[in-house]
Write a sequence for this structure.
């Protein structure tokens, strides 16, 4: 059974940092792309980042470039999202997502690319 379990969310002030973790199980971690999406209240869900565990490439939404960093610890089957210089507009539920790389990765920010989703973790940035 595939499981993606997010942790690390919470309340932080503007300019602060959080590190989200996504613990994965039930699939061959090294052969997957792992991404992060978020959904703010009243807004559509959007892709934030992705890491390709086969070639190590990373992808970021423009609004988080330079502030967010995604990394993968293959020994722990865990992907991290380090979020620095947080802004109130980063407030959202953050979801970990995964897809096999048996086919080439398309647009890493499209929901349809991913087969598996976690339950989400809340991130709140106060002004």
């Amino acid at each position: 059974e595939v499981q993606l379990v997010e942790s690390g969310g919470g309340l932080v002030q503007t300019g602060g940092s959080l590190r989200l973790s996504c613990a994965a199980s039930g699939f061959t971690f090294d052969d997957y792309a792992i991404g992060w999406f978020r959904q703010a209240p009243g807004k559509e869900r959007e892709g934030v980042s992705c890491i390709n565990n086969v070639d190590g490439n990373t992808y970021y939404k423009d609004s988080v470039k330079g502030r967010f960093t995604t990394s993968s610890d293959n020994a722990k089957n865990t992907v991290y999202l380090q979020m620095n210089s947080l802004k109130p507009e980063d407030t959202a539920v953050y979801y970990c997502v995964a897809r096999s790389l048996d086919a080439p990765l398309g647009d890493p920010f499209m929901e349809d690319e991913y087969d598996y989703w976690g339950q989400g973790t809340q991130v709140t940035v106060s002004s």
User: Anything to note?
Assistant: The mean pLDDT is 97. The first strand starts at residue 3 and ends at 7. The chain is about 0% helix and 50% strand. Residues 58 and 69 are 9 Å apart (CA to CA).
